[in-house]
Amino acid sequence: MEIDLSYLTNILTSPPGNLLYHLVISLAFVLISGLAIPGLNLANSEDRARHILVGCSTLLLIHIVLFAASLVQGLTPFSLALLESLASTLMIIWLFWIFHEEDPNFFLTGVNIFLTLALFIISTIILIMTNLGGTQGNFDPNMVIISWQLGAILLIALGLVLTFLKRPPQWVIAVCIMLVLASGHALEIILIDSLALKLGAVRLAQILSLPWTIVIVQRFSKSQSDKVEIRETPKMPSEEQRVDTKPTLIEYLLSVPLQKTQQDKFKAVARALSLGSLADICCIFKLNEEADTFEMIAGYDLIREVFLDQAVFPTDSLPHILKTWQENRILKLSRSFTEGRDFETLTELINYPHLGNMFAYPLPSDEEPLAGGVILLTPYTERIWQNSTTSLFDQIRPTLSRVLFTPSDIEQLQIELSNAEEKIQQLINHKESLQADLVEKEFTIENLESALKQWKARFQIEKLESVNRIEKLQEQIDQFSAQPEDRSDISSKLEQMAAKIRQLTSERDQLKKELAKAEARINTLNIEKGQTGPIRLSMETQVVSLDSILANVRLKIASQLAALSIDLEIVNPDGHQMIKVDPELTQATIFGLLDNAIKASSPGGKVQVNQKLSLETGMLIIQITDYGEGLTPEEQKSLFSAEPEMNPGIGSIQSIREAIRAIRVLNGKIWLKSKKGEFTTFRVQLPVRIID
To answer: Alpha carbon of 547 to those of 554, 572, 618, 666: distances in Å?
Structure first.
């Protein structure tokens, strides 16, 4: 007699077996969660109980969603089979997660979440593709379900390998459960034709594995209870069981003068005071009257053996303590002290819900009657402060104040050394600044001397030419006077010659004035040589704003911009800043470079002006960019040669030369950056005096 396995498995996929299956599964997970909830209130089992509770809640949610989907009308048998295959696979993943200990790095949790999302996405894609018109024939439902069961078996095999390797608690039971589930998926593959897309074999395997799951959770709970029962409350030492703290205290005291930094010294004092007075927590405070603050310079927790972090508080955060210390009184408060700003500040400082008994002792310094103080707290032992503690602090008060608030000779020398090094660095920086100014002035004098020589040579040449022309004109006058010609014609020619003579004389006088100005400029710079501060760079310096300089230039080139429809973009972040500079030369510099940029741009193009101040160097930085044809490296070199060649990337060589002349007079610098076919940028740097 053969057993029809398909008949047995189909019982769980048809009413009322379907409802019974979901009810048993849900009640099983509810029971497991109920066994894990009490562990949340136990210190040693809180994390494990939460771990089990999260896993069971996830599995319960999966089966509730599966049950709700089975009630939806209109779903095809293949869709229901695919959803149930998804639920069974997720059960394998999260059962494996429950059996393993909670992972402090959350690696296993992350992997589970990733696999869950991946399976959801894969099943969704399959459902969409099978339900699209014309594509359903491309899928064999049985092959899809078989593939899904093989994937579940592969996950079970992977889980078994990891379980054998990690050997978590109750790993044998976990292996049995995984094997039962694997047999159910294997049986589903064998009976795929007779089950008609109903996963009865998988459901049967899940029901058979549930009792094992309940046993594992019960053992976890029992293990937790056993751990709780054997816990013992640590015993506090009785009055008779006194510990000799003198060796440790002596060691702490000897380490105070050996500390390398002042902060380490404060920490060593706080630790010694805490042990010497048997205080749970010792805090040392320093009063800063100028800033109206309390600074906790050191703190030590004797019970936990840790130092507290430094903190700064306003004086009104410890009003009761401050008032008592200002009256040069000691403040003792019992553990009933649980209100007020003092309590809030100190509980926040030590990060503990209560303070126990408090002992606050004021400390003076050589200069101030109140320099700070010491606060002792007993939040753990609730030790009551006796008169012996007061006597101890009265005895060590002068020494303690001197150690805390009076720098030692070495510390004083370190402070003086630090101040001296800072002053030396300032002098070095000042020296470097003076040297830079001196070099810059010498360079300016050399340039002006060279220019003066050129002006003198030009003046001599032009003077000689003027004399020769005057002599020639005088000869002509004499000739005309000797010739018996018409007096009216001679008079007219004489008047023309006299006008030319007056013009030449005026030009000679103008050259003399310019020569005198250049000589005066040389004398001024020679006087200023060796002095500090900005250099006067021109004869006609004025205080102007950066906005006004650009506004005047824009007014000059407005007609050119309108004629060519050029878009002028101005970037001037420091426009309202006032500077002292020669406005005419500065405007001539910008105008010459802008005139070149406009002429080099195509109609309807764009020109950008960027002007800003460098407060560190005292320089005005100007960048003018056109987006014309640009220059090659060879063309850029030829631009600054003695006789530059004409090329399409340059708008006006004459405008560039005029700008360069103005820049040289202003003792500035100019750079060129260009890329053929893209842009050309002139960058100018001019020294100015910035007006605060």
So the answer is: 10, 8, 18, 19
Among 28-42, 109-123, 331-345, the range of highest mean pLDDT:
109-123
Tell me the two tokens of residue 220. Answer: 């976890």
Beta strands in 248-402, from DSSP E residues, in sequence order:
281-288, 293-301, 306-307, 311-314, 331-333, 358-363, 372-377
Residue 241 has pLDDT above 50, yes or no: no
Upper half-sphere CA count for residue 313 (Cβ side, 13 Å)? 23
- Which pLDDT does position 535 carry in this prediction? 37
Sheet holding 689-690, edge to edge: 542-545, 578-581, 689-690
Q: Where are the beta strands (DSSP E) in 460-562?
A: 542-545
SS3 424: helix
What is the token pair recorded at 631? 């220059």
- Which band of pLDDT confidence, cut at 50, 70 and 90, is reported for residue 624? very high
Check residues 39 and 424 and name the one with the higher pLDDT: 424
Q: Are 203 and 242 in contact (CB under 8 A)?
A: no
The tokens for 137 are: 């024939």
Range with the largest mean pLDDT of 7-21, 91-105, 137-151, 231-245: 137-151
> Bigger pLDDT: 357 or 692?
357
* C-alpha distances in Å from residue 361, one per residue of 135, 284, 477: 87, 10, 114
Looking at this protein, which amino acid is placed at residue 116?
A: T
**Which residues are CB-contacts of 609 (< 8 A; sequence separation ≥ 6)?**
550, 568, 569, 570, 571, 572, 590, 594, 622, 623, 624
Name the band, by pLDDT with cuts 50, 70 and 90, for residue 112: confident
Nearest to 350 by CA among 391, 317, 388, 306: 306
Distance CA 149, CA 276 (A): 72
| Secondary structure class of 288 (helix, strand, coil) | strand
Q: Which residues contact 401 (CB under 8 A, 6 or more apart)?
A: 363, 364, 365, 371
Going by pLDDT thresholds of 50, 70 and 90, the confidence category of residue 534 is very low
What span, in angstroms and rounded, lies between the C-alpha atoms of 626 and 569?
Answer: 11
Q: Is the CATH number of domain 255-406 1.10.150.20? A: no
Helices (H) and strands (E) in the chain, counts: 21, 15
* CB distance 266 to 295 below 8 Å: no
Nearest to residue 183, comparing CAs of 208, 148, 161? 208
- Residue linked to tokens 């008169």: 387
Instruction: Return the C-alpha torsion angle 533, 535, 539, 541, nearest 10.
Output: -60
Full-prediction pTM beyond 0.85?
A: no
Task: List, in sequence order, every residue forming a beta bridge with 570; answer none if it has no partner.
Answer: 609
Residue 684 has pLDDT above 90, yes or no: yes
Contacts of 226 (CB under 8 A, 6+ apart): none
DSSP 281: E
Beta bridge partners of 612: 621
Cis peptide preceding 16, ω within 30 of 0 = yes
> For residue 88, which of 152, 23, 157 has the smallest C-alpha distance?
152
**320-357 core/surface letters (b: 16 or more CB in 10 A; e: else):** ebbebbeeeebbbbeeebeeeebbebbbebbebebbbb
Terminus-to-terminus CA distance in the chain, angstroms? 110
| pLDDT at residue 2 is higher than 50 | no
For residues 404 and 168, give the distance between their C-alpha atoms in angstroms, rounded to a whole number. Answer: 56
Q: Specify the CATH class of 542-690 in words.
A: alpha beta
- Class of domain 5-227 as given by CATH: mainly alpha
Q: Which residues contact 489 (CB under 8 A, 6 or more apart)?
A: none
| Burial of 596 from C-beta contacts in 10 A (0-12 / 13-18 / 19+) | buried
Q: What is the mean pLDDT of the chain?
A: 78
